[in-house]
Amino acid sequence: MTKDGPIHYAFATPEAINWRISQRSGEVLQHQVRETIQAAFVELRHWETWI
After folding, report:
1. Separation CA 31–CA 21 (nearest Å)
2. Residue 41 belongs to what domain range?
3. What domain of life (predicted)?
4. In a domain, 3, yes or no
5. What are 2-49's pLDDT values in tens digits?
6. Is the pLDDT confidence value at 1 over 50?
């Protein structure tokens, strides 16, 4: 066993993998929400020019 063997094993556990997946999907979700909010503000400004 190498000195960093346990570290690699820890990242290979289902809990660690699920945690990493949830971290990534959380980042993606935040990015999508941010884009949606920005698009809504652009749309709002567009309508303000018509009112």
Report:
1. 15
2. 20-51
3. Eukaryota
4. no
5. 455 455 555 567 887 788 888 888 888 888 889 999 998 888 888 877
6. no
11 within some domain? no
Number of neighbours of residue 3 by Cβ within 10 angstroms: 6
For the record, the structure tokens of 2 come out as 């190498």
Residues 29 and 15: their CA atoms lie apart, in Å, by 21
Tokens of 10: 């820890």
Query: How far apart (Å, rounded) are the C-alpha atoms in residues 23 and 39?
Result: 24
What was the pLDDT predicted at 6? Answer: 52
pTM to 2 decimal places? 0.47
Question: Does residue 37 fall inside a structural domain?
Answer: yes
Amino acid at 42: V
Domain total for the chain?
1
